[in-house]
Amino acid sequence: MYNVAASDDREINNNALMPVGNTVDVKNATFTNTIGDAQLDVVWTDPDFDPKERAFYYARVIEIPTPRWTAFDAKYFKLNMPEGTEMITQERAYSSPIWYTP
User: Fold this and answer.
1) Residues spanned by the domain of 11
2) In angstroms, rounded to a whole number, what is the distance separating the alpha carbons of residues 68 and 83?
C-alpha cells in the first residue's frame, strides 16, 4: 500500500500520513466540511513494478470523520450512550481494480 496524495497540504513521510483532523460535534450530531480537499490530482508510478509479474491497483479514499448513527440517535432520542460507544465514523471508498497481466 502506498499513500500517494494527501489533503490539506499534509506531507507523506515514509508512507505515513497524519490524520486529516476532526470537526465532529458529537453532542449536536453535526460536523463542518472545512477540512480535507474536494479533489486531489496525482500521477503515480509503482516503484516496485516488474513488467514480468502480474499486478493490480486500486484507489482507496478515506473521508473526513462524521457523526456515526449512534450520535444521531443519542441526539434525537435524548439518550446517554454507554461509555465506549463509538460516536464518530470515518468512511472509506474503493475504486474498481486495475489489473496488469504481462
Assistant:
1) 1-102
2) 15
